[in-house]
Design a protein that fits this description.
The structure holds three protein chains of three kinds. By secondary structure, chain A is an all-alpha fold. In chain A, 74% of the residues lie in helices and 2% in strands. Chain C has one domain: Orthogonal Bundle (ABC transporter involved in vitamin B12 uptake, BtuC), CATH 1.10.3470. Chain C has a two-stranded antiparallel ribbon. The chains are: A mainly alpha, B alpha/beta, C mainly alpha.
């Protein structure tokens, strides 16, 4: 049973992969001299690595049926605090060695990310407020805090290790892509192999059913917001490594791009659904459209239109699969919830 | 899960292989761009290799930046080059960085950038230069990894001019407030600070109504649309009834500030010194709320940027007094990596119709 | 019972609104001056009209992120339409034409989501990208200068229905837009509460199966709800661009988050299909009072964003805690 359904899942992955390859061939042929180059490959993968990590931060929340509009603000705040430590602007007298500063800076960034996740989680899970409202308010809160810290100025410069992360390659593959791949493998493990992952999915698929399984709702949501904050912080570090500068107002558009990617990966088609690896593939898909069209000389208006059209096409193609997906979820949730039919 | 992983890896490998397969060819590209004149003339077609030029702006879809497309196309036609006009659909630094990455992947011979967040572009521009691209920015003062930055005028001079105009048109004892788009826009901050410093030094009776932070001016934030600046200005006008004049640095804030002034019935007592397009604020010039404005034509700057890039490729030097072939840039001033033109455009009621045609 | 619950939720919001206003007025009495009151009302117009539209969709259990694209696109089409026929425009046709465009555009969202039983939210992310871009691909420039705008529309900026000269030398002008907001709110209230179709919209958000059994056609109801939504955001959009005096596609994008915040703050709940006109107006009032007073109160510029975020969060906290307490009391 599981195998059959698994194959069905694979079919979606394979079709996404096919779409991606076909798109790469078509769009690449507009300007093959520039598109099929190592340089463009590296440029594309560096971009998609950044979007990809934000998409993970979004996915973690979406899977449990919410929406996190504060990922970019959290990322900026975390990176600004972490970066200030790395640059010696904060605690510069106490921590002197560059390596120690780097490590403490990373730690600070991650801690801030997770803490802001706790704040979001407290409001959403603890008090039962609407995720959209809470995260859009905390988004302003965090961005405002970052503005207070930086006074509107950019913090310029980055330690060697950070700037190398953003620009260097390992055997022709950018470090950033490897980092993103690592994050995706971690997420794949969490969402396919652990009880927490299954709980998140069940929560997204049928929150009412989950309520009967004791008070784990709170813990699941809290954990997922913390995880989202963690990935946001990593995203902040990635952005930092690409720019070697920190700003309080960086990248609002990344939120919607992250949503698009997650959506294409299928997380919303079925509440509680979405495969981590599908998201990884749709990242390539979106990036190929974006870079390919730019290289072929069309404007971003065209890109947006094609993004939107492709998304809707994929959605429509996937509609009949909804019911099967739901039943698979129940199996995965390890009998945490009473086996009620939720497909009315 | 293993299947998924292998699929993903396969995807990476396909792309990597495609790219590695081409890797041998790629180094030729930048090389072909540069020393083609001197060393490899016989390999190339007789006429010089067609140049690729690209410009990355803050946002497409407004006349301000689209004029850079128009004039860039004109330059490209005159010089037989291939012109790319790239930019995000709304003003966002992350979206712009992605456009910049793609533009660099185009391996253009000349790359022009109008950065939203100058500092954030610097690291990427270093990559562009390392592949042999000539980087010429506009509104990019303070960037380090560039060949030149072309501006219509010096930022400091621009702010000082407005302080002088304030003295001339409003009076030496004016109470003023500066408005910027966002506190993170470097050019707006530079103009406000220059205004503030010049007013403090030369017009001791002028009063600044803005917050001060350690002796530095903290301008008001007007936001990216006219509604935010409208809301902001109404509050500020009520809190500071003594105000005489707003110095509005952001084109997108002018309409909002003027609307606020007129709504509160203060059109007679509070005036505006405006930066930015004439055509967008025509009614407020006519009603007398804006007493003076200044702008520049970004298209001209674009033309000049490409011209500078081309001359660099040809191995020429750029020095003070050179003519870049567009009005306002017939006699430039070079200061380090900064190039200034005389492309200042004053807007008053007298030349309003003419200026509305420009932008 | 249900009705009483609604009144009580409403009361909490009104209390919260008065509380914030009182605290502000104690800090700075000018908050309650005629000028500032009019100013706050004017600030709430855009948000109010758009949030009312947003509510209609949320009642049906959906959520739409494409509101600002619809708003922008229908304003653009309206302005171009006036340009083509060479008419200088008037206030009534301006809102009607924009509303029609908006309704038609938004119905695309409703159709796709209902026909293929997809979540409206998901569809709207795709259509948001399309609506925001598709018309601008082929244009040399999408910018519309002040000169090229229908000149009568620009008068929206200065047309007031009430004008007072206050003591501080400032005038208090109540913009004509408030009439539009009041009319929209009244029409929507009548439509939702007093007509068959309106009850159908509420029913759709509650239980889709029940709707069919009672004899409503879910497709018709969805389309109508989206049409109302589209019309509202389009009216807000044309009002926004008339006030701006020029048209640029990107200008309106960041107004969206306030609209969503107002709608949710106003008690809209997509999961249960809840939402009322009064609640929305209260939500809009709270968001406006927070956003339109901080500079007057003298909050330093660097701290404004932070303060807005913190106050909204506290406001949400307050209203939710009170509601929960209310429900617990009722449970006993």
């Amino acid at each position: 049973m599981k195998r059959v359904l698994g194959n069905k899942q694979n079919r979606k992955t394979i079709s996404l992969l096919l779409i991606t390859v076909v798109l790469a061939v078509i769009i690449g042929s507009f300007n093959p001299d520039k598109f099929f180059t190592a340089q463009n490959f590296q440029s594309m993968t560096r971009q998609l690595a950044e979007i990809g990590i934000y998409a993970l931060a979004m996915f973690v929340i979406v899977v449990s049926g919410g929406l996190n509009l504060s990922i970019v603000a959290v990322a900026n705040l975390a990176a600004i605090c972490g970066g200030s430590v790395m640059q010696g602007l904060i605690l510069g007298d106490v921590i002197v060695s560059p390596l120690a500063r780097l490590l403490v800076g990373l730690l600070v960034a991650v801690v801030i990310g997770v803490l802001s996740g706790v704040l979001n989680g407290y409001f959403v899970a603890g008090l039962g407020l609407t995720a959209v409202l809470v995260t859009s308010a905390t988004s302003q809160l965090f961005q405002g805090l970052a503005l207070v810290i930086t006074k509107g100025n950019a913090i310029v410069g980055a330690p060697e290790a950070i700037s190398a992360l953003g620009t260097h390659n390992l055997l022709g593959i950018p470090y950033l892509l490897l980092l993103a791949l690592g994050c995706y493998i971690v997420a794949e493990f969490v969402f396919e192999k652990t009880a927490f992952g299954a709980q998140c999915r069940l929560l997204g698929a049928n929150a009412t059913a989950n309520q009967y399984s004791g008070n784990s709702n709170y813990k699941t949501l809290m954990k997922s917001y913390m995880l989202s904050g963690f990935f946001s912080a990593i995203g902040g570090i990635v952005s930092y490594s690409r720019m070697c500068a920190l700003r309080s107002d960086y990248g609002n558009s990344l939120t919607s791009t992250a949503m698009l990617v997650v959506l294409m990966g299928g997380a919303w088609v079925v509440a509680g659904g979405g495969k981590v690896m599908n998201i990884f593939i749709s990242l390539f898909c979106i990036q190929i459209i974006s870079s390919g069209l730019t290289l072929s000389g069309t404007s971003n208006f065209t890109r947006n239109t094609i993004w939107g059209a492709l998304l809707i096409a994929i959605l429509l193609a996937a509609t009949p699969a909804i019911q099967q997906r739901l039943s698979r979820l129940k199996g995965l949730a390890r009998r945490r919830a009473p086996n009620k039919g939720n497909a009315a | 899960m293993k299947k998924m992983l292998s699929l993903a890896l396969a995807l990476c490998m396909i792309l990597a292989m495609v790219s590695c397969g081409q890797k041998d060819d790629t180094p030729n590209d930048p090389n072909a761009g540069q020393p083609s004149q001197g060393t490899q003339d016989q390999d190339q077609n007789k006429p010089q290799k067609k140049l690729t030029v690209a410009t990355v702006v803050k946002a497409i879809g407004s006349n301000w930046f689209d004029s850079m497309d128009w004039e860039g196309t004109k330059w490209a036609e005159e010089n037989g080059a291939d012109h790319h006009y790239i930019g995000p659909t709304s003003m966002d630094s992350a979206a712009q960085l992605q456009c910049l990455e793609d533009a660099i992947a185009l391996q253009p011979d000349v790359l022009t950038v109008v950065p939203i967040a100058a500092d954030a572009c610097d690291a990427l521009l270093a990559q562009a230069r390392s592949q042999g691209t000539k980087v010429v920015t506009h509104e990019g003062t303070g960037l380090t990894n560039i060949d030149f930055n072309v501006d219509a005028f010096s930022n400091e001079g621009f702010g000082i001019n407005f302080a002088d105009k304030c003295n001339e048109l409003i009076g030496a004892d004016a109470t003023y407030a500066c408005v910027v788009g966002t506190l993170t826009t470097p050019a707006h901050m530079a103009w406000s600070k220059a205004f503030f410093a010049h007013a403090n030094a030369n017009y001791p009776n002028m009063t600044c109504a803005n917050d001060l932070d350690g002796g530095e001016i903290v301008p008001l934030e007007g936001g990216a649309n006219s509604d935010t600046s409208y809301t902001m200005a109404k509050q500020f006008l009520q809190a500071h009834p003594e105000l005489d004049v707003f110095y509005v640095c952001s084109s997108s804030c002018v309409a909002g500030v003027c609307r606020a002034i007129e709504e509160l019935g203060l059109g007679e007592s509070v005036k505006v010194l405006a930066v930015g397009t004439a055509s967008g604020q025509k009614t407020y010039y006519e009603s007398g709320t804006i007493v003076y404005g200044a702008m520049w034509y970004p298209g001209a700057a674009q033309y000049a940027c490409y011209e500078v890039g081309k001359r660099l490729i040809e191995g020429k030097t750029i020095s003070t007094g050179d003519d870049l072939g567009f009005e306002g840039y017939h006699s430039i001033t070079v200061d380090g990596t900064n190039i200034y033109g005389n492309a200042w455009l004053d807007i008053t009621l007298d030349n309003l119709a003419e200026m509305c045609e420009v932008l | 019972m249900r009705k009483r619950a609604k009144i009580n939720d409403m009361t909490i919001r009104v209390v919260l609104f008065l509380l914030i206003l009182t605290v502000f007025a104690i800090i700075e009495p000018a908050v309650l001056s005629a000028t500032n009151v009019c100013s706050m009302i004017n600030d709430s117009i855009f948000n109010g009209i758009a949030a009312l539209g947003m509510m209609t969709v949320m009642i049906t259990g959906a959520f739409d992120l494409s509101s600002m694209s619809i708003s922008m696109l229908s304003a653009f089409l309206t302005l171009k339409f006036y340009n083509i026929i060479g008419y200088e425009g008037d206030f009534i046709t301006m809102f009607l034409i924009a509303g029609t465009f908006g309704a038609l555009i938004a119905m695309i969202n409703g159709f796709i989501s209902q026909k293929f039983s997809l979540s409206g939210f998901v569809v709207s992310i795709g259509t948001n990208l399309i609506f925001g871009s598709v018309f601008f691909i082929f244009l040399r420039s999408s910018y519309i200068k002040t000169d090229a705008m229908p000149q009568t529309l620009l008068k929206v900026r200065t047309t007031a229905i009430l004008s007072l000269q206050s003591s501080g030398g400032t005038a208090a002008n109540l913009n004509i837009g408030i009439v539009v907001l009041v009319l929209t709110a009244a029409a929507l209230w009548l439509f939702l509460n007093k007509t068959q179709l309106g009850r159908g919209i509420y029913a759709l958000g509650g239980d889709k199966v029940a709707v069919e059994r009672v004899g409503y056609d879910p497709m018709t109801i969805t389309l109508i709800a989206y049409a109302v939504f589209g019309a509202c955001v389009a009216i807000a959009g044309i009002y926004f661009y008339s006030n701006a005096g020029t048209f640029e596609p990107g200008m309106i994008a960041d107004k969206g988050s306030d609209v969503i915040a107002s709608a949710i703050f106003g008690g809209c709940n997509m999961k249960e299909g809840k939402g009322s006109v009064g609640g929305i107006l209260a939500g809009v009032a709270i968001i406006t009072v927070i956003k339109s007073n901080l500079i007057l109160l003298g909050v330093p510029v660097y701290y404004v964003t932070f303060t807005v975020g913190a106050m909204i969060l506290l406001g949400v906290l307050f209203s939710t805690l009170s509601e929960q307490r209310l429900q617990r009391n009722r449970g006993r």
